[in-house]
Amino acid sequence: xxxxxxxxxxxxxxxxxxxxxxxxxxxxxxxxxxxxxxxxxxxxxxxxxxxxxxxxxxxxxxxxxxxxxxxxxxxxxxxxxxxxxxxxxxxxxxxxxxxxxxxxxxxxxxxxxxxxxxxxxxxxxxxxxxxxxxxxxxxxxxxxxxxxxxxxxxxxxxxxxxxxxxxxxxxxxxxxxxxxxxxxxxxxxxxxxxxxxxxxxxxxxxxxxxxxxxxxxxxxxxxxxxxxxxxxxxxxxxxxxxxxxxxxxxxxxxxxxxxxxxxxxxxxxxxxxxxxxxxxxxxxxxxxxxxxxxxxxxxxxxxxxxxxxxxxxxxxxxxxxxxxxxxxxxxxxxxxxxxxxxxxxxxxxxxxxxxxxxxxxxxxxxxxxxxxxxxxxxxxxxxxxxxxxxxxxxxxxxxxxxxxxx
Length: 406
Known about the structure:
Layout: H1 19-22, E1 29-41, E2 44-51, E3 57-62, E4 67-72, E5 75-76, H2 82-86, E6 92-101, E7 104-111, E8 115-125, E9 128-137, H3 140-146, E10 175-181, E11 191-192, E12 195-196, H4 197-213, E13 218-222, H5 232-241, E14 246-251, E15 264-268, H6 275-290, H7 301-333, E16 341-344, E17 356-360, H8 367-373, H9 376-405
Parallel strand pairs: 1-5, 10-13, 10-14, 14-17, 15-16
Antiparallel strand pairs: 1-2, 2-9, 3-4, 4-7, 6-7, 8-9, 11-12, 15-17
């Protein structure tokens, strides 16, 4: 696919300000009082952002679904109200804003139908700057021909190329656990009662790390240690580079329909255990799309076959891991979902060579769970339960591996 990128480089090159004034551009830019305005006409959209100072920025489009991505270095989105903004235009399905990489902010506009960027400019407007974006309706073929994420050193993924994981059973001299606090940055996850899932899971991940490190024979790596966005595939890459024996993804979702409470442990399966599990997996994967990740590159058929072969060994180990986690969490907290072990096609669990589990520590849509998740003492008990489960699983896994070698 031919890809055409519209890049707007260093914003101060577009200004008429004197050099002395440019020295003030290193601070964090913010939305000014005018904020973000959106005007929709037949077949056209015009988006304007009024900010306190010019900053480097760029815009590009992504396909499947059609999205417009704006990156800034760096912009505070306080007051943006993306949901209310998206509701103003029929040609917009959703808008997400937030931190994408340390030092870089992102806005992603999901379009209801393909639209081309026909104009994009930043003008200085003392004491700040104004970004204007014009979009015109087009057909799918033209949009696809111009869509694509750029290969830019500034915006390159931190993960780079994945390294091969060492082929060793768990339960050796040391156990390497990769903890994945769900969501982050532009993707806050569930929000309920003033609590953001991304913040809560980062807090718990740090607490869990401290508990595991005290076990002496456990090494711990976090996929993120700040409020930043990490794509799903990069989370798995981090685990593989660390030589992970175990990968644990931490979440606390909210259900719009129905009622659920208690901890749940998920392992990978093509078919979800129930409709709610399928919706959770779909929402987790959609977060990457709405954050502007380019998912156009897919594994080839040979790679998929090799991964399926690897999973024949890893899947039973992951199932035993899940059962240990269910027992550990229930013993430590007496909190468990009515079906504590479920299956779904979470992309973050698809590493074929690493036993992986996704822990829904509770549901923010449940008042009872929110109270527990907000209690440091309860979280400490949960962390101890996970630690005990990992130690038990590692011993069992090593014993089974020894039998297979005999």
